[in-house]
Specification:
- With about 260 residues, the protein is an alpha/beta fold.
- The protein folds into two domains: about 200 residues, 2-enoyl-CoA Hydratase, Chain A, domain 1 (Alpha-Beta Complex), CATH 3.90.226; about 50 residues.
- The protein has twelve helices and ten strands.
- The strands form two sheets. A six-stranded mixed sheet has the order 1-2-3-5-7-10, sandwiched between helices.
- Strand 1 and strand 2 form a beta hairpin.
- The longest helix has 19 residues.
- It is globular, with a radius of gyration of 19 Å.
- The relative contact order is 0.11.
């Protein structure tokens, strides 16, 4: 497909839908047009049954996403109105990514800072090169960090590490990020893409409806107790048991072969 912005590349490769932040001269700092391109790219991949997993990465060798493009702030985040509009577009992109029904992986190398951390945390898995650097510098810029973004960090690493990330505003190594649970794992830089591709291959063989159900149930479990939608959880599970894929999975097990799932 053709992305709405030249600074966002969308490329399908087999079962993988790549989404590339393409602003390498600014270490892939994310601009308004890049935020706006995320939902339509995901909508395209959502409609394509051949795409089983989405991988997000940064162009070049310096960064995943080194935060928001601060050079645009004077024009796009300097008044209450422009701040509200910027936040609306960015929040819509993060929401679409966080609620996407197919598995998502952030493939992280180099700098993953500020908004880059926020984007990575919306993905299901975060696999980083051992040279990656993470940080949220909001306290150095005087920014207010929205409660939803703070909650995402707290849910993942707990309150103590979340406070350390926000209060120090320092950079954390990939090893530190893995230790606190900010990423799933760190791998040698030269092995990163092969590692992610192997994960994609494994995911692509699995039952799409089962993975969608797990994502949905986990998202419900992260809500405060009174807001947990048990009916949604039960419906997602029931859909799996009523699917053709469940029949295929049983038959493949009995016939001692790999199942071929169709997502229905």
């Amino acid at each position: 497909m053709i992305s709405p912005s030249e600074r966002m590349i969308a490329q399908k490769e087999g079962a993988i839908g790549w989404m590339v932040f393409n602003n390498p001269e600014r270490r892939n700092a994310i601009s308004m047009d890049m935020w706006a391109a995320i939902p339509p790219i995901l909508d395209h991949y959502d409609r394509d049954p051949e795409v089983r997993v989405i991988v997000l990465k940064g162009a070049g060798d310096k960064a995943f996403v080194a935060g928001a493009d601060i050079s645009q702030f004077e024009k796009q985040r300097s008044s209450a109105e422009t701040i509200a509009e910027y936040d609306r577009i960015a929040e819509a992109a993060n929401l679409r990514l966080g609620e996407f029904r197919k598995p998502t992986i952030a493939m992280i190398h180099g700098f993953c800072i500020g908004g880059g951390v926020g984007i990575a945390l919306q993905c299901d898995l975060r696999i980083a090169a051992d040279n990656a650097r993470f940080g949220v510098p909001a306290a150095r810029l005087g920014l207010g960090y929205r409660w939803g973004g703070v909650k995402k960090v707290v849910d993942l690493v707990g309150p103590a590490f979340a406070k350390e990330i926000f209060l120090t505003a320092r950079h954390f190594s990939a090893a530190e990020a893995a230790g606190m649970g900010l990423i799933n794992r760190a791998v040698p830089e030269g092995e990163l893409e092969a590692y992610v591709r192997n994960y994609c291959a494994a995911i692509a063989e699995n039952a799409p409806l089962t993975m969608e159900a797990v994502k949905g149930v986990v998202s419900e479990l992260l809500k405060p107790g009174p807001h947990l939608d048990r009916a949604r959880c039960e419906a997602l599970v029931a859909r799996c048991f009523a699917s053709e894929d469940y029949i295929e999975g049983r038959r493949a097990f009995m016939e001692k072969r790999k199942p071929v799932f169709a997502g229905r």
